[in-house]
Amino acid sequence: MTTRSDTLPRGQLRETVTYLEMRAPVARTAPRRLPDGLILERVPRPGLAFYRHLQRTIGEPWLWRDRLRLDDAGLAAILHDPRNELRVARAGNAVAGMLELDWRQPGEVEIGFLGVVPQWIGRGLGGALMDEALRRAWGDPSTRRVWLHTCTHDHPGALDFYRNQGFEAYRREEETFDDPRLTGLLPRDAAPRIPLARE
User: Fold this and answer.
1) Measured between alpha carbons, how far is 167 from 189 in angstroms, rounded to an integer?
2) How high is the pLDDT of residue 124?
């Protein structure tokens, strides 16, 4: 990916954000199963330190930053809302992936986060988490829309993956943001495939 850093203020990056939605369930074959050795469990009222650990463990390669910028009160307001649902895939005590569903808008379910730690990418966990997300979302008869967003700093296959699940893009936006590796929010060596912003 080429970052047009020469046109940006120092310390900033640019990305294209794509919003996708599904307005009706898509017919599927047998649900994809979790890879052997993994369990998926609900985490009610997750601790803030644990959640930030999840965000860093899974999201550092893709510059996940929005939740890490929130203070304790702001983060707790989201995570401890009963309409926000977190599930974590584990191999023993080690985290393998996460799924977060946001039910706060009536009739809508946002797949807020669906992510896999690097060593589990390509082993079927992402597909199993997506099946769980769609099963839960469309299992509620009030659901009229399931949506999510991705960006050009996400996994290179993310957009095609979502389209292959039946999501359709409905909006794209260009965004600029402070490089979280320069602000100290993420380690400087995070996401090495994405060039650092000009300092």
Assistant:
1) 33
2) 95
- The span from the CA of 135 to the CA of 31, in Å, is 9
pTM greater than 0.90: yes
Alpha carbon distance, N-terminus to C-terminus of the chain: 19
12: nearest Cα among 74, 63, 71: 63
Both tokens of residue 197? Answer: 């912003």
The encoded tokens of residue 159 equal: 């957009």
Distance CA 125, CA 130 (A): 9
**Integer-rounded Cα radius of gyration of the chain:** 17
What whole-number distance in Å separates Cα of residue 115 and Cα of residue 6?
31
d(CA 50, CA 142): 31
For the chain, what are the domain ranges? 12-22+37-183
pLDDT tens string 79-111: 999 999 999 999 999 999 999 999 999 999 999
Vertex 30, ends 43 and 85: CA angle to 5°? 15
- Is 12-22+37-183 CATH 3.40.630.30? yes
Q: Report the run of H or E that residue 126 belongs to, with start and end.
A: helix 125-138
For residue 72, give every residue at least 6 positions away whose Cβ sits within 8 Å of its Cβ, in sequence order, or none: 48
